[in-house]
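pinging the channel bc i need a second pair of eyes. not urgent but kinda urgent?? the chain im working w is below, pasted from the shared doc
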Amino acid sequence: MMYLDWFVGTMKKTFGIEVKREDVGYEAYDFYHEELDDLLIPAEHLVKLPNPLLIETLSYVDDEGYEWIAGYLLEEGTRKKLYEVWIKNGEQIAYEFYVD
């Protein structure tokens, strides 16, 4: 998993949560824009991104039962990161664009 170390490092540095690599879940999906919920990627962000999208997610449930999800969209040919979203217990808490 290419972004596992990034996820573990960001959880510690940004959120102060120690995460063991083996406790992180991973999934990858292809989606068309109309299949996505605004929680994951707001409509105003989608217009700047390719259609369909390759979305990879890393997830972790902390000791208090909070579910943390980091989703990132990759350009299919280059695997370059285009967009990142962080969700905690079903609510978007941060996002970052890597394209104009």
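so The two ends are 26 Å apart (CA to CA). and The chain has a mean pLDDT of 91. — does that match what u expected or am i reading it wrong
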